[in-house]
Specification:
By secondary structure, this protein is of the alpha+beta class. It contains four helices and nine strands, in the order E-H-H-E-E-E-H-E-E-E-E-H-E. The radius of gyration is 15 Å and the shape is globular.
Length: about 200
């Protein structure tokens, strides 16, 4: 699995419970979500993938998965450097109660994650080796306790805690298996969504 990843998950309950159950993909709902995320853009469906292969998409591609109780999106176009700058269109696209963001880039030695409940930002952290902490908003989450702001290690812990699996491939018995979760790929042209950097 790639060290680079970008993932936004919106859910009504615990996303790990939904993902662990190997949810069934709702392709019509995935198409509608992609249209909401990229209003006015041309969307070309280019195939299905598994989440394990969809964490580091090309710039002009978005991977979308919609399931009962949960929606997920993998798109660098939608990923800000600071989680608090996540485009409001992302929150509005699903209307679900909780949103989680996780992103990491190995070459840049950078990771970030964010948590929103009922539209309110609860936690946002963005950190890289140089210049260091870019954003640190809200109280630390349990998995951050006594943890140094090391981008690689923190990013992996955050992915495990928030999404239920690890890019390091720890393969715990109760891990989510991203190789069993299908998503749809769309090539996006003429996107009107702006990203913060």
């Amino acid at each position: 699995m790639a060290f680079n990843d970008t993932l936004v998950v919106s859910s009504d309950g615990n996303p790990i419970d939904v993902l662990r159950a190997c949810p069934v993909l709702d392709k019509p709902a995935a198409r509608l979500l992609a249209e909401r995320l990229f209003p006015g853009a041309a969307l070309e469906e280019i195939g299905d993938l598994l989440l394990a292969d969809a964490l580091d998409p090309p710039r002009d591609v978005v991977y979308v998965g919609c399931y009962a109780g949960l929606d997920l999106v993998s798109s660098w176009t939608l990923t800000p450097q600071r989680p608090s700058q996540l485009d409001p269109v992302v929150h509005a696209a699903t209307g679900r109660r909780q949103t989680l963001l996780h992103a990491a880039h190995g070459d840049a030695a950078w990771c970030s994650f964010g948590l929103w409940r009922d539209g309110a930002l609860v936690r946002a952290l963005s950190v890289c080796t140089d210049p260091g902490v870019l954003e640190d908003t809200g109280e630390r989450l349990p998995f951050e306790a006594d943890a140094p702001h090391d981008p690689a290690g923190l990013g992996d812990r955050a992915l495990q805690a928030l999404m239920g699996f690890s890019c390091a491939g720890h393969d715990r018995l109760d891990d989510v298996d991203p190789e069993l979760i299908p998503v749809v790929a769309y090539r996006v042209t003429g996107a009107a969504v702006s990203t913060a950097s």
